[in-house]
Amino acid sequence: MSSEFISRWLPDLIRASYLLAAFLFILGLKRMSSPRTARGGVVWAGVGMVIAVVATGLLPGMHHLGLMVLAIAIAGGLAWWSGRRVAMTAMPQMVALYNGMGGGAAAAIGVIELLAAARMAMHGGDGLSPDAQTLAVLGVLIGAVSFSGSLIAFAKLQGWMDRRFVFPGQKVFNLLVLLAGLVLGGMLVLGAPSLPVLATFVAATLLFGLFMTLPIGGADMPVVISLYNALTGLAVAFEGFVLQNEAMIIAGTVVGAAGTLLTQLMARAMNRSLANVLFGSFGASGGQAQEIEGAQKEIEASDAAVMMAYAERVVIVPGYGLAVAQAQHKVWELARLLGERGVKVRFAIHPVAGRMPGHMNVLLAEAGVPYDLIADMEDINPEFPGTDVALVIGANDVVNPVAKTDPASPIYGMPVLDVASARQAIVIKRGRGKGFAGIENALFYADNTRMLFGDGQSMAAQLVSELKALDT
Description:
By secondary structure, the chain is an alpha/beta fold. 60% of the residues lie in helices and 7% in strands. Strand 2, helix 15 (359-367) and strand 3 (374-376) form a beta-alpha-beta unit.
């Protein structure tokens, strides 16, 4: 490229590329809002990211391009390999891990900029402007919290650590760690950054993210993932202002805004205020939970098939167990057979079913379930009293009626699917264990509930066989 072109036209070309990338980000996000167009949305957003990365590589004065290309190739290859191999059941922890990496990257950028400013100040330079220095510190604070918190969320979802970890005085300890981080951050904003203060500041923010996430129960994990997604976007936007990079500013703002809205939606689905999400002890019990009386009553697949075959309305409630068993195809075959017999079948989806927003919708779409048969909780709950049979497959906490009846329950106040109000409920479950929140489910002991113990896919296959046998 000629020096005249570089000095006159290249900056405008880069800004135009950033604008195009931003448009593609927003278009992709819009298309991701519907299962019908989500795949195209991912592609458009990916194209926007490629354009932004290439445009950034063309910035004048960019150094170490070879190393950056090598790093992108290695990381991209690993992401492609892991993305193709990861099971749908592991998608929530994958999202948590990748989101944490984004927050960590934003924090690392802020640390590097602050260190560079400190070196310039030592040699009599101007360093960062006060505004840029403040935003760099905020980016480190938010990005580090998102990084360490997301790693804890990943470890919990992966089953590497207990779902909740509490100790006496935990809230006070967390508050002291946060105050220490804020004081150290204020020192970095008001004075020239120094390595000891910066290192202690980063350690305090990482520690706060870790201890803020440790007490969170499994039932609240979708809210946590959404929250850290918003924090990562905010951190990236702040560091974009520091670097004066329009693509980072726009992309971070879009991610932060989308993550904030999703956090509010998830918090509403869990019946928690945003303040409770940020500062409460997630999933904490307020006292001694009520004892559940009765016993779980088993049913054979043949009897369950007869109940559904001669019903007028059947609602199928999929949960994480369906995802683990990869039973969505057999369940859709079961629904089709019922439909051929004149049974009206619908699928009921809780907002946080599957430990991640949209998890169940993706699984059902993969099996070919029409979108008009899938109903959200608000739409389907009024229909349960008129439902002859509710078939629950691998769902637990999202159908637990104690959320409405027991103030001492960790999930009290969380909106749930009203399966208990159906005339009959059949629950397919591998065993008698508790749900992800670690509590007993009163639905399983109800008089109108029968338990069909076994793997989700094998039980669905048995139900299909029994239904076919009724016509022979």
